[in-house]
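WARN no homologs supplied; continuing
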Amino acid sequence: MFIRSFKYDGQLEVWVKAHEKDKYKLFKTYKVCLLSGAMGPKRMQGDFQVPEGFYYITEFNPRSAYHLALGLNYPNASDKILSDSLRPGDGIYIHGSCVSVGCIPVTDSDIEEIYLIASSAKLNGQDFIPVHIFPVRYNRKKSFEYFDNYTKNKNSLARFELQLKEAYDKFEATKEVPIVMVDRKGDYVIN
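OK structure emitted
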């Protein structure tokens, strides 16, 4: 299982494959039912930003106040370097109930399906379920134009977003999740 989410486009994709050697295939695209924050990474607690970057599921919460919830490893290694050192924030989930102050909410019926797939993947030995969160769908003209305009005079944001695009492009070309590392400056290095 592999999950991709697109903030501007308000979508979450679930990709699956039956065997390790197979290529990923799109299982389903879900609507993110509420958007929080703007384009750009989450950098501090209380900024209402949905993070952008490369994460994985760390928690399965069947008793969440938001119906069901899959917790992400925010802040990741990059976030810990680039975010507010004292209050980077935490508690980022994919969950139901259509409410958000920085999470990725879907409908209750959608989270039931996503949670079931993730639980099945974990029970079948997948300990690392990657979740990539992008600002936009880079291959959708309207989305990329918005991205291009939004980052035009924001050099550090544009540089960060292009690191994400590199991973997006690699997956699009290979249907394999790229290996993502973080350098000492907090930049993503895509292999």
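The chain has a mean pLDDT of 96.
OK
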